[in-house]
TrEMBL record:
It comes from the Bacteria. This is PKD domain-containing protein. Residues 183-244 form the PKD domain. It holds the Pfam family PKD. Signal peptide: none annotated. InterPro entries: Ig-like_fold, Mao_N_sf, PKD_dom, PKD_dom_sf. It comes from Deinococcus radiotolerans. CDD domains: PKD.
């Protein structure tokens, strides 16, 4: 709350009057809870209107004085009252706002209760009766109205103490009884910089209709700079009716409790970004590579945008394998991506899909990788195809891709014998039969992207945390080398920059009481990770909304509860590498900053 300025020596009578008035009001009404309550109206000026719990709004003001008191609370006029032509005049919009009275405007026509005005002609009518000239006037861009006419329009009581100081008492506007009511509170009125603000919402509808939308202005869960902040909520019900804005003010002062970084380590949710300008200066964690399961990754991304039907990539596997395909339809007609499995044995072979994630169709490349990973981590698998000798069948078939849209698929397969796997792009009118596939050309690589078979589909790493913060670098090609393999169609050695499709099996020891975040180092990143923390298994969408873009704005992944934390990470197709995983020590209850607020309404 703002404190009133010391009274001017010549205003003793007015001060005594106001003190007596406030004393009387305090006997009639309980103290206001939750801080100053104000109502922002569509046509208000910068002044905030009081929305009191009292039935009346009482405004005390003095001509040519910027101070004004609304139900005893000090405020300031932007355009002070004036004496114009012998009349005491108030700025129309500010006065209506301070009194909590709605204005309706259409062009130059303005309606306030029983008062109608034409702000261009400076004319007024009260319940249809024309008012004398001079009742309305303009000073610059501000419309002024006679205080006595305003009082008549509102059926208000007007008292003139000394001809210069006036008290106007009016009933607050009853409003529209059908509109919903916005309501919220905060746990305190005054906060320290960096202290969490707990908002509790309790809007309602007069007839019990659902509140379907909320619009906030000025709301933050924490304020780091001292000052006074205004927070406003407007709600909409299921019938499309909107409430009046409901506003509270918050004051921030005193010694800081948290910085943006320490606050985020306490309160940020997985998937939230937070600032850390020192992130690139943290030392690298000591990584211990471990023996990994040996099965191949068949990667198809070249030509990334095929312009004709054809075979994109082909190789044979026995046992487990991971498939990753990333292609855009460059044909001038609808097309589909297939992965075909053909039995190369002289006996029946089972092909089991253990995990599958796909995104198709979409034209937004970053969505391709993220949605595929979220589906991949969520899939249960279990689908099995039995192939007779020489028989082929599709283990994956995309939806129809319109020209320019793309598909990303990642699939783990297990076979009981040797099978040939073929990535095929086919125009929608052609079926993926053996007769059709045999006539398709092998499409040449585009020279910019990669295809091939890579023997290391899993990279197993162990880290024991020591001094924090520390970072683990993935996908940079130096600290974390790129996997190498062979293009089975050309026999050439190939290198998979970024290790897309490689599953990083990361075990972190000494993790209890730490937080881990992802810092994008190569540009836009949008992906997902799977976490196992003791009995908890959770897939995290990174970031929660939008894209991670800046190295110094890492995205929170998890706060570890167990000493051992397991992270499954696959670099996301369509996103940029490298990334860093940053490990921090989280804030403790007994550390600087005090008790952590745990209530989350």
């Amino acid at each position: 709350m703002l404190s009133a300025r010391p009274p001017h020596p010549t205003r003793s009578r007015r001060t005594r009057f106001r003190t007596a008035l406030l004393t009387s009001l305090s006997l009639l009404t309980p103290p206001l809870l939750g801080g100053a309550l104000t109502l922002a109206l569509p046509l208000t000026s910068a002044a905030h209107a009081a929305q009191p719990t009292l039935g009346s709004v009482q405004m005390t003001f003095t001509v040519d004085d910027a101070d004004v008191y609304v139900n005893g609370a000090p405020q300031r006029w932007l355009s002070p009252p004036r004496n114009i032509g012998g009349r005491t005049m108030l700025p129309l919009r500010e006065a209506a706002a301070l009194l909590g009275q709605p204005l309706q405007a259409s062009g130059t026509q303005v309606q306030l209760a029983r008062l109608s005005l034409d702000t261009r002609k400076n004319t007024a009518a009260l319940s249809g009766a024309a008012q004398p000239a001079g009742t309305v006037t303009s000073v610059g861009a501000v419309t002024y109205v006679s205080v006595r006419t305003l009082a008549d329009a509102l059926n208000a009581n007007l008292i003139g103490e000394d001809g210069r100081t006036f008290t106007l008492t009016a009933l607050r506007d009853g409003g529209n009884p059908m509109i919903p009511q916005a309501r919220f509170s905060t746990d305190k009125n005054v906060y320290a910089p960096g202290e969490r603000v707990v908002f509790t919402e309790y809007p309602f509808d007069p007839d019990g209709a659902d509140i379907t939308a909320r619009r906030w202005t000025g709301r933050q869960d924490v304020y780091f700079q001292p000052g006074t902040y205004t927070v406003t909520l407007t709600v909409t019900n299921g019938r499309g009716l909107q409430s009046q804005p409901f506003t509270r003010t918050i004051r921030v002062e005193g010694q800081p409790i948290d910085t943006p970084l320490t606050y985020a380590l306490k309160y940020a949710q997985p998937g939230d970004a937070f600032p850390d300008p020192q992130v690139l200066n943290y030392p690298a964690a000591l990584i211990s590579p471990q023996p990994s399961p040996s099965y191949p990754l068949l990667f198809s991304d070249s030509p990334e945008v095929p312009d004709q039907s054809g075979i994109l990539y082909q190789d044979s596997v026995t046992g487990r394998a991971r498939l990753l395909g990333y292609h855009l339809n460059g044909l001038n007609r609808g097309a589909r991506l297939y992965v075909l499995a053909r039995n190369l044995e002289s006996r029946p072979v089972e092909v089991r899909s253990e995990r599958l994630g796909e995104t198709a169709p979409t034209r937004i490349e970053s969505i391709l990788g993220q949605v595929t990973l979220l589906e991949y981590f969520a899939s249960a698998g279990g689908t099995t195809l039995t192939l007779s000798p020489g028989q082929s069948a599709a283990v994956y078939a995309s939806p129809t891709l319109s020209p320019g849209s793309g598909v990303n698929v990642m699939q783990d397969l297990s076979t009981s014998g040797k099978v040939e796997l073929t990535y095929v792009m086919l125009e929608d009118s052609l079926p993926p039969t053996p007769q059709v596939v045999q006539q398709l050309p092998y499409l040449r690589p585009d020279g910019r992207h990669t295809r091939g078979t890579f023997p290391d589909a899993v990279r197993t790493l162990r880290v024991t945390l020591g001094a924090l913060p520390t970072r683990l670098i993935i996908g940079d090609g130096r600290v974390d080398p790129a996997v190498t393999g062979t293009d089975a169609l050309t026999g050439q050695s190939v290198r998979l920059s970024g290790n897309y499709g490689v599953l990083y099996d990361l075990e972190v020891n000494g993790a209890a009481g730490t937080a881990v975040a992802l810092s994008p180092r190569g540009g836009l990143y949008r992906g997902a990770m799977n976490i196992q923390d003791g009995p908890i298994t959770q897939t995290i969408k990174l970031p929660r909304t939008g894209n991670a873009l800046k190295p110094d704005e890492p995205v929170l992944l998890w706060r570890a509860q167990s000493d051992r934390l397991n992270i499954d990470f696959v670099p996301s197709s369509g996103s940029n590498l490298p990334i860093s995983l940053i490990f921090y020590r989280t804030g403790r209850v007994d550390a600087e900053g005090g008790v952590i607020k745990t209530y989350r309404p």
